[in-house]
Amino acid sequence: MKVSEFAQKSGYTLFCTGEDRTIESGYCGDFLSNIISRAPENCCWLTVMNNVNVAAVATLIDCACILLCEGTAPDAAFAARAKQLGLWVLGAQENVFEAAKKVAALCSV
Amino acid sequence: MDCIRLEYDVDGENFASAGNASESVKRTLKQLGIPPASVRRVAIAMYEGEINMVIHAHGGKAVAEIYPDRIDITLKDTGPGIADIGLAMKAGWSTASENIRSLGFGAGMGLPNMKKYSDEMDIDSVVGVGTTVFLRIRF
Q1: What is the mean pLDDT of residues A7-15?
Q2: Which of B26, B36, B107 sits opposite A60 (nearest CB)?
Q3: Cα distance from A97 to chain B (closest Cα, Å)?
Q4: What is the pLDDT of residue A14?
Q5: Using a CB-CB distance cutoff of 8 angstroms, which residues of chain B are in contact with residue A85?
Q6: Averaged over A69-93, what is the pLDDT?
Q7: What ranges make up the beta strands (E) of A2-107?
Q8: Beta bridge partners of A26
Q9: Of residues A37, A51, A56, nearest to B23 (C-beta)
Q10: Does A44 touch chain B (CB under 8 A)?
Q11: What value does the mean pLDDT of chain A take?
């Protein structure tokens, strides 16, 4: 499923839009070194981290989108960098587990 | 042999710009048509090195030399140095502060990731003088 379609169907908050990739998998985590070494390309990355380094890591791993969970919103620096880098950033009120279930169900991953 | 040489100043303790050098190298490699799997290895290894320079060493210099079959990356800082390289290479071991950990770093995966994703890695470090890390990744 394309990120744009996921954004629409999930009803999640849309913080930034970018290249409309297909979500092929999901990955949950907050430790950035784990993310960059283990998160698969074109995944939906679920995290509660909201600093500017999340944008840099998302670019390096070529994820399809970032899904900020538990009501997390990007801070100003993060939002600006994400916009500059052309990243999709969405926001969910649910915890990571519940949001991951929704990603899995909607995207069939 | 001719190579493409890219040089970067890594700004110490500026987390807003951390990753700029890695992103730039990644973009260049993609433009050169280097296989995506190799590009990813380079990006991971270099980003970890770049972040280490920001977290531990007040920044430094990053030089990437791109050859047809490989990239050589040299990361040089004048930070505090690494007292025990063997311990620093151990996964999960970190001297990062709580503040750094709250940003998502300090998992003790930096040097192990650099080793894992490079074909050759060499660390030259003198306490009180600085650290130079050499990475070679073949395409």
Answers
A1: 97
A2: B26
A3: 19
A4: 97
A5: 23
A6: 95
A7: 13-16, 25-28, 43-47, 65-68, 89-91
A8: A44
A9: A56
A10: no
A11: 95
Q: Which residues have CB under 8 Å from B97's CB, separation 6+?
A: B106
What are the E-state strand segments in B34-119? 59-66, 70-77
Residue B97 clears pLDDT 90, i.e. is over it: no
Q: Which residues pair with B135 in a beta bridge?
A: B73, B121
Give the start-to-end residue ranges of the domains of chain B: 4-138
Q: Report, at the CATH architecture level, how domain A3-107 is classified.
A: 3-Layer(aba) Sandwich (3.40)
Contact B54, B77 (CB under 8 A): no
Residue A85 φ/ψ region, left for φ over 0, alpha for ψ in the -120 to 50 degree band, beta for the rest: alpha
pLDDT for residue B13 is more than 90: no
Select from 3.90.1310.10, 3.30.565.10, 2.40.40.20, 3.10.28.10 the CATH code of B4-138.
3.30.565.10
Which pLDDT does position B1 carry in this prediction? 64
In this predicted model, what pLDDT tens digit does every residue of B32-48 receive, in sequence order? 999 999 999 999 999 99
Strands A43-47 and A65-68: parallel
Are B19 and A59 an interchain contact pair (Cβ–Cβ within 8 Å)? yes
Nearest to A60 among B36, B47, B107 (CB): B47
A77 has a chain B CB within 8 A of its CB = yes
Domain ranges of chain A: 3-107
**Angle B31-B38-B74 (CA atoms, 0-180°, nearest 5)?**
90
Q: Which residues pair with A25 in a beta bridge?
A: A43
For residue B126, the cross-strand partners are: B130
